[in-house]
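Discussion board: Methods & Data

I've been asked by a reviewer to show the raw model output for two of the constructs in my manuscript, not just the figures. I'm not sure how much to include, so I'm pasting the format here to get opinions. Each protein appears as its amino acid sequence followed by a line of discrete structure tokens. Is this the kind of thing reviewers expect to see in a supplement, or should I convert it first? Here is construct A:
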Amino acid sequence: MKKILYSLGFTLLILVGVLYISDYSYLLRAVSKIYFTGHSTAFLSDYTRFDNHILPASENPQAWPLHKNYNEVNLSEDLEAFHKKTQTVAFVLIKNDSVYLEKYYDNYGSDSKSNSFSVAKSFVSALLGKAIMDGYIQSLDQKVIDFIPEIKGPYADLVTVGDLASMASGQRWDEAYYSPLSVTTAAYFVEDLGKLILTQPIDEVPGIEFIYKSGTTQLLGMVISKATGKNLTDYLYETLWNPMGAEHESFWQVDSAKKGLEKAYCCIASNAKDFARLAKLYKDHGKWNGKVLLDSTFVTKSIQPRFPESPEYGYSWWLKEYKGHKVFMMRGHLGQYVITFPEENLILVRLGHTKGPKGSKEDPFTPDIYTYMDAALELNPNAG
């Protein structure tokens, strides 16, 4: 028995050594931070296991007003059952810029932090708009190579910042969340994310079609940091987070304390009502309580499809025409959603541990999204 244990221990030691010196050394970090916790993928509170930049609360925090009928409505039994099944932690409905309903589950509260996952992509796109507005970047047509001359690939000199924001980069990327060997998994755990991104060439013609790739937003984040001379956290705080009156301290995950590069494609740890502020800003055409924070032309362009054959996506915002309503949304792994009905002046935020069944491959929206859109519309007539 001892020989067997020694043999297993020696084999494990060799395996760890091989991983450590190979391109898959990040798997050791993945095991310690995610897999040994009983999870098969990233999870809502995993920001506590990574290095982060602090995103402070606003110097002038602005609480959302409460609707005159605040929390007077009861959710249907079916919706409550769905929340339980999909492990919802926050469900917030904002009508006419006032909180109409908010419910929290699983010991979460209004100030509980939750990983945004790809909801962060919309924030990064907003920072692109701000960098253009501030004169750091000329336009959506400026070339990425102007800022990141190290990018490689036969079409590296063609890709623009607009191509990155609209997911039309031509970048080589494997968008596989549950494969431990995919570049998406590697991006979550490597300690030098910038180096990893530069290994992914622009090997297809950019600006042709929408193909969702997290590495594309990461490259965009690197462009914005290079253009502004600021890290994304500081630039977000200075230009949007602070002016929008965010109430609670939040965090943005970075690759490592040494490198300090934000995971631009994901991972702002914040709360439902502070996430909703960006939706309000876009609903109001870039103005926050009358003050222009983003150019209205950029905002309008962002929430319209770039490619007619891909009506579901604009510039880092998901888009939908649903039951006669225009909808734009921020959307993240495991069912993090900020869904806006601009014509109804209605914002729904849902955060949770899972999102339920995948649905059909032909539909870019999972069935749970329809459940939440229906819930928002059913609750809306009573909101006044």
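Construct B, same format:
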Amino acid sequence: MKDKLRVAMFGHKRIPSREGGVEIVVEELCTRMVEQGNEVTCFNRAGHHVSGVEYDKPRQEEYRGIRLKTVSTIDKRGLAAVTSSFFAALYSAFGKFDVVHIHAEGPAFFAWLPKLFGKRVIVTIHGLDWAREKWHGSIASKFIRGGEKNAVKYADEIIVLSKGVQKYFMDTYGRETHFIPNGVNRPEVREAKLITDDFGLEKDSYILFLGRLVPEKGIRYLVEAFKNVKTDKKLVIAGGSSDTDSFMEELKELAKGDDRILFTGFVQGAILDELYSNAYIYTLPSDLEGMPLSLLEAISYGNCCLVSDIPECTEVVEDKAIIFRKSNIKDLTEKLQDACDDIRKVGKLKEQAADFICDKYNWDEVVDKTLALYGEKSR
């Protein structure tokens, strides 16, 4: 695009941050858009890091050329996203922006506000958030559903990250959407040093889950299945809790009696890189996903992956991973055991992994397609 655009983004918690996949996506998009000469403002939430105050960072007004504005937030479960999104929508509506890009269904509830003031509104659906277990039967679930409907009604364009969600929007609302999956960067593979010192982990000595510890990620099944696997390898569950620690405590109770299961808590930086770089296999046993960035990252490090058969995972891995039946502990146990026993099979999948995923998902292409949507005529 030749003309410089003034872009506002909200719906994420804050950047820079690895609190979730949305935050990584927003940072990748914004930094590249700025590099292409666009002006980008991100509206960050106030409040504490989702994994605890110890991970809080000082507020910034600028990051890698992105303007950062922290908006008022009621830092309570169910209210943080609502209040921060409302104020972000308000600032976006009255600010000098050409495009307002909203991330996730809940924040899209306020898509009408910038639209009312003549802004071009883009919404990215990162997943069907109303279906998450933590919102089941709650007012929050109804609010998120309302956000989905407002995205359909007010957004000039909707971006989806999977073919399944694209079909859902067409079947449910008759609404066309744009399939623009996330990208991935080719990382530097690191030797096991910090993880050896901190956790006693060495190359290929562990099976890795890395992500937010929330019920829909299927970690309950993973712990129950792993307890029945005959192996000396450890199961490393890396990630922080989301909103409350109750699910983390439930998992630790489930893992009691098996000292092969290790909880690291929230990880970032060099430790995260080392965990990805040295795993025997990476597993993502999710019941529900948008487009799992952690899976893209794991494969980019050259990992053999074991994933559930939900479309959001199988679309990513194609035939380059081991797949088990969603929610099926018996099948997961068998696939884990087979992977532990068949070193050759795991090695073959590792050899193909990084080139396959880095060729398939490219951030620069994602940004070019997104900017093209920004510049199209309004609905």
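Answer (T.O., handling editor elsewhere):
This is acceptable in a supplement if you add a one-line summary per construct. For B, something like: Residues 343-360 form the longest helix (18 residues).
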